[in-house]
Fold this protein.
Amino acid sequence: MTRYIEYGADMMIKRLFFLLFLFFVLMSADLFSQQPELEIRTNPENRVYRFETNSRRGYYNLLIQNITCINRSRETITLEKGVLELSDDSHILQSVYISGADMEKSARQMKAFEQQGTLKYYGPFLGLNRIMKEGDRLSTSPDLEPHSVLVSMWHYLTFKGEPRWLTIHFEGRTASGNPVMAEARLEVVQYQPARTYIFPVRGLWYVADAGDAFSGHRWVGMESFALDLGQLGAGGKTHQGNGERVEGYYCFNKEVVAVADGDVIEVRDGLADDSATLQRENETDEDYESRVTQNQMKLLQEDLYLTAGNYLVIRHAPNEYSHYAHLKRGSIRVKPGDRVRQGQVVAAVGHSGNSTEPHLHFSINDGPDFIRSSSLPVMFSNINTPELNGRIYLHAGDMVKTNDF
Ligand SMILES: [Zn+2]
């Protein structure tokens, strides 16, 4: 009898526990449904590479292509402030605020791209395809409706010293007045390449574009630290004659070499080195720029990868691939699967794809895909550039001479 009572009591307790447990589950589920969810995603994610501003004086810079705030709750969230914070393991070294006005400006620009129908072409270059999910909508203001996304573009920081972390912090409020916050943290890294690279061309070259803030490359992840390389002749010009023919450019048809041993991953050939895309002698810069933009859009609409022209990708290490673009039609001497040696001639400089004049666009990326990988800051072992003057990286405006020249 006693046993029965005991047993019954035990059951009661168990049931009570079960009910209590269920109650807590329901309560917490309810809490979660009210708890607004603000997600921050960034491009780059996890780590960001520092680049020289003036390394002799200890100044460096970094760039976040975009910071995306996504409202994953069922209520509207109004973003009130964003902060970028550089820190070492114990101290905050620098804080930069993102104002509401700045958020709004960027949001409107993205919306304009969407309305013009160009976002689908620019999105992959801006890393937005990875960040936005099916059903997410762009917001034009810091008032984020459920499933809407605020894209805050291009945050560039110059700093002194060696911060270890970049923390991105956003605060806001729900329509019902509850505070919300979200955070993302990236490691600030001085990139150490896995391989020793030589310069992709031989002789005396001019760096027309590199990873500097004033360069066009820096602002797009796939080419942040890419180099545009050309050659100069008499009068500091890149070409002989009036510059209306690709053959008149000093660098045209010069040999391109493999920067390290590796395996050829991808080759694209067959696109013309079209003299018609060069600036005409009597054409104003403004007219030419609009023609270049139109041409670029035409290529993007047909196939995003056409912008690179004829290109070649070689794998050197698990996360290091050399990318060579705008190559001369028919000049690529290797095919996917080929093993190449450092210094082996693999192609020639050309003017295919989205190119304003013959040059080599070169970069080491962390993946094989031209658009969906990120550019890495690298240096070269065989160059003699006194102007480097203690610098590690090449910058736009540098003249580079390879040692064998
Ligand atoms: Zn380029």
Notes: Residues 82 and 98 are 5 Å apart (CA to CA).
